[in-house]
Amino acid sequence: MALFNFRREAPTAPQADSAALEAFLTGYSIEVMPRTAEKIEDFRALLPKGTRVYIAHIEGTPIEDMVATAKRLNAEGFPVMPHFPARIIPSKAVLLDWIARYRGEADVKQALLLGGGVNTPAGDFDSSMQMIETGAFDGFERLHVAGHPEGNKDIDKDGGDAIVLKALQWKQDFANRTDAKMAIATQFCFESDPVIAWVKRLADAGVTMPVHIGVAGPAKLQTLIKFAVSCGVGASLRVLQKRALDVTKLLLPYEPGEFLAGLAAHKAANPAFGIEQVHFFPLGGIKTNAQWVTEHGGRAGQPANA
Predict the structure, then answer these.
(1) What GO molecular function terms would the record report (predicted)?
(2) What contacts 67, CB < 8 A, 6 or more positions away?
(3) Which CATH fold topology does 18-295 show?
(4) Where do the structural domains in the chain lie, given as residue ranges?
(5) Which residues of the chain have pLDDT under 50?
(6) pTM for this structure?
């Protein structure tokens, strides 16, 4: 299918009022990398107190840079959640060393465990499940695992979700017997209906870990399309494709308001719906993303049960 081939849009999801959107944004988290964090003089000027900050670990990033970023954010009052991408970790010894550094130097108590975006493992680990089985994360207060509302063709090559769903069921079983709080942090999407259907499918399959839904922050349309293609975002990419064909919108920055409003309205109407928090990927810049969230009510910081 050509990049700009798209099917007729489904009916627009109900729109959330400002109170519903503000409630949905409460306790949002955001992702940074060491090189982007370096550009921020003081995160306290941008983010609500207590905001969880994920630190993305891209292959080739020195662990010293990761730990230094975690230490700095922790000192500024933000709970940090570094990524542990299984396929870029050479051995269990290296994993244990990373954990020791994070805990000893930056008081890290949370982690995002994921397979990682490389095809060939660097060493002992191919999946987050293998890392969990080592017991290396025993004692962490919170562990998140990856979710893909539109599937992950690196794992389910037929375009389905059978293998990914089985892995999430394994992780749910682990969540049921660990003291750590667990949640599913997802890839970003652009359309609410597929996300709603995916969360319902998880619940029907017995996966009840809360979902922290990935959201692309405000950014140039060209930037978002590039990231969406490289990250394997699937069906909801058509939202961007349609926008790219509208010359009146082509040069305007994308904002996630419509996507979030659809989810917020559904959450308001269905309080038990499995999305617990919003997680932002600041593809257009941390300052731009933080300002947008603030303007749309995301001032409250972490909820009491975070």
Answers:
(1) oxidoreductase activity
(2) 101, 102, 105, 106
(3) TIM Barrel (3.20.20)
(4) 18-295
(5) 1-14, 245, 247-248, 300-301, 303-305
(6) 0.86
